[in-house]
Design brief:
Blueprint: H1 39-63, H2 71-96
Helix pairs in contact: 1-2
Bound molecules: zinc ion (ZN) (2 copies).
One zinc ion is lined by residues 11, 13-14, 16, 36, 38, 41.
């Protein structure tokens, strides 16, 4: 689950397009038209964003080894909580779909 380069006009998760929308109907969630607004796609997109930020933070943390009260370590704690929440959203959306 990553933020793969997406092609505008096609959902990067379910591959739906303007011509061939999801069975239950959908529209674009983002301005670039790379994620549709079906609950599972939105949930996966949010989690992927949080994961991408988390990765950047860990790189920052590595460079600041030993500084447990740095902005990076605090932000990493916050983003870990967010990732847990978003992972739950993905699970719920999967159950619902
Ligand atoms: Zn769709
Ligand atoms: Zn989609």
């Amino acid at each position: 689950m990553n933020l793969a380069p997406a092609q505008p006009g096609r959902c990067r998760y379910c591959r739906c397009t303007d011509r061939c929308a999801c069975p239950e109907g959908c529209s674009w969630y983002d301005d670039q038209a790379t994620v549709c607004d079906s609950p599972l796609c939105v949930a996966r997109f949010r989690l992927a964003l949080a994961n991408a930020i988390s990765k950047l933070l860990r790189i920052g943390l590595k460079k600041q080894q030993g500084q447990r009260l740095s902005c990076y370590s605090m932000a990493a704690v916050i983003i870990d909580e967010l990732r847990k929440e978003l992972a739950m959203e993905v699970r719920d959306a999967k159950v619902a779909s």
